[in-house]
Amino acid sequence: MRRLPPVLIDDGCSRELLSLIRTILAACKEISFRVGQGALSGVLGSTLDENIQGETQKKLDVLSNQLLKDILLESGYVKAIASEEEDYTVAGNPDAEYIVAFDPLDGSSNTDINSLVGTIFSIMKAPHGSDPADQTIFMQPGHQQVAAGYVLYGPCTTLALTIGKGTRIFTLDKTHGSFMLTEEFAKIPEDTKEFAINASNQRHWQPAMQNYVNDLLAGDTGPRGKNFNMRWIAAMVGDVHRVLCRGGLFTYPADTKDPNKPFKLRLLYEANPMAMLVEQAGGIAHTGEQRILDIDPQEIHQRVPVILGSKNEVEACLGYHK
Ligand code: AHG
Ligand code: MN
Ligand code: MN
Question: Where do the CATH 3.30.540.10 domains begin and end in the chain?
Fold first, then answer.
């Protein structure tokens, strides 16, 4: 089994990018340890604070954010960072080449029930000569990402990573602290009988998604002519990992539940990195109107609809949106 650094070097990863990825992973190993300690290290439960998006912060959201932020900024490998838990971008080393957007802990509602959580990250190049304090350096479409990944803190800790040469899966060997390559090229099956959606929002969805899901639920006597299974982990990182492992369709569509928040998932540190991982594994990632990786971001915490996964199933879903 191969360790992460030689695998990435063989893929043509620059020394600087490799160092940055290893820095992110150093923070993730620490988060993995703290998540694994659970109640023993006093990290469960909520803080009294909200982030800029009006969401109550869990203690683990704050801790994970602090670890990533401190380790990245101290490393000197980043020009700036953007995080779900930071109101604005944070300036780093003006001479660094890369910027990183991250969701320090995805699936925060799972922290207190010993269920799946993870860290999602997106790496882009900063425009040449740009100011590290300039928020607009993050306003790049996702197809310009140079690397994307997530670390899933589950029964084992796994890393899905792409630098644009396919999506690879590594497993953290906790005895040595090394991420070992355990799947060379993740390939999402083109067909599936599994979908993931928070069905409690059904009455708030737009007609296209209502019709699509109704046809899935109609099973083998409906227009799709086959029975579908449903899964919902309430952590995108867990649902996308299942899609990478065995296929499926994952969606968090537009809904009218809260008129101020028509979409749930954030473009820069949820949708974009997952879209790159999924496309690099042969899947599709779309909003219903356009490819996620082609969206021109307007703001750091921008939200978008997400439909991703197995190619033929995503195309079937998009057929309802035409
Ligand atoms: P976060 O914990 O980073 O705020 O993200 C949670 C997101 C996503 O991971 C997940 O798919 C979705 O919210 C869960 O939404 P529901 O609460 O509607 O299940
Ligand atoms: Mn999240
Ligand atoms: Mn989060």
Answer: 4-183
> pTM, whole model, 2 decimals?
0.98
Q: Which CATH superfamily is domain 4-183 in?
A: Fructose-1,6-Bisphosphatase, subunit A, domain 1 (3.30.540.10)
Q: What is the CATH number of domain 194-321?
A: 3.40.190.80
Pocket test for ligand 1, best of 56, 109, 205 (most atoms within 8 A of CB): 109
Q: Is 106 in the pocket of ligand 1 (CB under 6 A)?
A: yes
Query: What's the 3-state SS for the chain?
Result: CCEHHHHHHHCCCCHHHHHHHHHHHHHHHHHHHHHHHHHHHCCCCEEEEECCCCCEEEHHHHHHHHHHHHHHHHHCCEEEEEECCCCCCEECCCCCCEEEEEEEEECHHHHHHCCCEEEEEEEEECCCCCCCCCHHHHCCCHHHCCEEEEEEECCCEEEEEECCCCEEEEEEECCCCEEEEEECCCCCCCCCCEEECCHHHHHHECHHHHHHHHHHHCHHHCCCCCCCEECCCCCHHHHHHHHHHHCCEEEECCECCCCCCCCCEEHHHHHHHHHHHHHHCCCEEECCCCEHHHCCCCCCCCEECEEEECHHHHHHHHHCCC
**What pLDDT digit, counting tens, does each position of 42-84 carry?**
999 999 888 888 888 999 999 999 999 999 999 999 999 999 9
